[in-house]
């Protein structure tokens, strides 16, 4: 697309005389028929008849094609982001999926993220997809967890690249795309090197330029319906004619005040959004504090109810103890106090001693009640401890009984094994004795057989027979 647009622009800027043929039509030699005719216009004449030596001509510097590709991506990304922001400012409304600059932006951003991405090698090879890279962002950003979970739950998206495209769209609507991009760049050495080749754009310095361009996209608002888009299909094509036009011919001097007003409105909008974020943060903190206060209040109410119940139980125990000892209960004591007060009002002097006695008795009763309560608590604790000790003893007894039974069984098994071993030992000794007798017999037999073999060998030897005959003859002569 870019070459077609450049060739079209060059064809419009150059005036060519169509009436004049480019080659002569004569009966000359083959070399003359192929030589171009000098056009009277002059411009083509200079192109065709340039006989400057090669040493004096300007030569292009050799550059790395990977660096050229990175610079091309950065430049087209600048153009697309600029056009996207200008279209948003010009129309002053939210951008939807039908916006052509927005479509071009996602195409270019995908090219940027896929530049130098390592291919997946084999079925069991490591994961080298953009979606796997985007899923790691939720480890460092809590806000990325929401869009990652929503992308996982999309029923219309089936492929990894489709999920990655949906994630980019949701991040742009969330106005956190630059922040997520920054998180990836900060972990360039330990994370991105596993996904990208050495000359990739995400590992180069141009990635910081891309991040700065993405920061400028926070001023636009997008309303994208991810469920209705076909994100699994192939990407579209960028129309470069929108970005190769003359910048001065499209704008007019009347748009400058509107442009300034729009920038002020956008600045105010950004300030309000930032203020809204701070307010939302404070609201969440206050809500958390309110929840903690409500929980503490509920716990304090429960503690108060438990304390009231314990007080009521203690009062009932006190009344019962007073009844057992023949003393008045607390209500009766209160009535007596009221009667005493009434009597004191009638005769203050005569009742002071009685009041003192009553106070003394009350103090004694209260002290006695405290002692009884302490003794009761001690008895309750001792009872609980004795019950616990009894349970532990029972458990220990059961365990010991089980161990005794198991040991008895093991002892019986050992006795049986010992008897069998003793029986086998006796049998082995008897067999050894019998075998010893057999060995002695066999030794005797072998000695006899060896002597017999010696005799047979002597009989079979002729020298031996001649010697024996000579010895017999000599003995006869003698």
Automatic annotation (TrEMBL):
Residues 96-229 form the RUN domain. Keywords: Coiled coil. One of its GO terms (cellular component) is cytoplasm. Residues 348-410 form a coiled coil. Pfam families: RUN (PF02759). CDD domains: RUN_RUFY1_like. Residues 18-39, 321-340 are annotated as: Disordered. It comes from the Eukaryota. This is RUN domain-containing protein. It comes from Cherax quadricarinatus.
């Amino acid at each position: 697309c870019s070459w077609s647009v450049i060739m079209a622009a060059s064809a419009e800027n150059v005036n060519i005389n169509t009436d004049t043929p480019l080659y002569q039509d004569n009966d000359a030699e083959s070399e003359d028929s192929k030589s171009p005719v000098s056009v009277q216009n002059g411009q083509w004449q200079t192109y065709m008849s340039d006989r400057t030596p090669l040493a004096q001509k300007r030569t292009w510097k050799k550059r790395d094609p990977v660096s050229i590709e990175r610079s091309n991506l950065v430049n087209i990304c600048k153009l697309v982001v600029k056009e996207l922001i200008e279209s948003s400012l010009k129309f002053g409304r939210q951008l939807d999926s039908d916006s052509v600059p927005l479509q071009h932006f996602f195409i270019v951003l995908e090219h940027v993220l896929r530049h130098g991405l390592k291919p997946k090698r084999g079925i069991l090879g490591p994961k080298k997809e953009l979606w796997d890279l985007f899923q790691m962002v939720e480890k460092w950003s809590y806000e990325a967890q929401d869009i990652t979970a929503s992308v996982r739950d999309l029923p219309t998206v089936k492929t990894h690249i489709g999920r990655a495209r949906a994630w980019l769209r949701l991040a742009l609507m969330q106005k956190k795309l630059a922040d997520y991009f920054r998180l990836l760049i900060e972990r360039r050495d330990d994370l991105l090197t596993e996904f990208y080749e050495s000359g990739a754009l995400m590992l180069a310095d141009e990635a910081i330029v891309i991040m700065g361009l993405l920061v400028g996209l926070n001023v636009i608002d997008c309303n994208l319906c991810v469920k209705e888009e076909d994100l699994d299909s192939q990407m579209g094509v960028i129309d470069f004619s929108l970005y190769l036009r003359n910048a001065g011919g499209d704008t007019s001097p009347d748009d400058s005040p509107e442009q300034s007003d729009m920038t002020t409105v956008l600045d105010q909008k950004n300030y309000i959004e930032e203020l809204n974020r701070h307010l939302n943060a404070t609201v969440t903190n206050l809500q958390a504090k309110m929840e903690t206060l409500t929980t503490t209040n509920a716990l304090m109410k429960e503690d108060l109810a438990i304390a009231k119940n314990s007080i009521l139980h203690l009062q009932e125990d006190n009344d019962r103890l007073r009844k057992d000892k023949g003393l008045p209960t607390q209500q009766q004591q209160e009535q007596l106090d009221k009667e005493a007060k009434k009597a004191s009002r009638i005769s203050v002097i005569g009742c002071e001693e009685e009041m003192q006695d009553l106070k003394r008795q009350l103090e004694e009763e209260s002290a006695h009640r405290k002692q009884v309560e302490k003794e009761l608590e001690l008895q309750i604790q001792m009872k609980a401890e004795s019950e616990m000790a009894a349970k532990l003893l029972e458990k220990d007894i059961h365990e010991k009984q089980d161990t005794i039974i198991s040991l008895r069984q093991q002892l019986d098994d050992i006795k049986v094994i010992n008897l069998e071993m003793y029986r086998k030992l006796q049998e082995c000794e008897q067999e050894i004795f019998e075998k010893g007798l057999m060995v002695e017999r066999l030794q005797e037999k072998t000695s006899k057989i060896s002597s017999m073999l010696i005799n047979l060998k002597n009989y079979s030897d002729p020298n031996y027979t001649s010697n024996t005959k000579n010895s017999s003859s000599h003995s006869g002569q003698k």
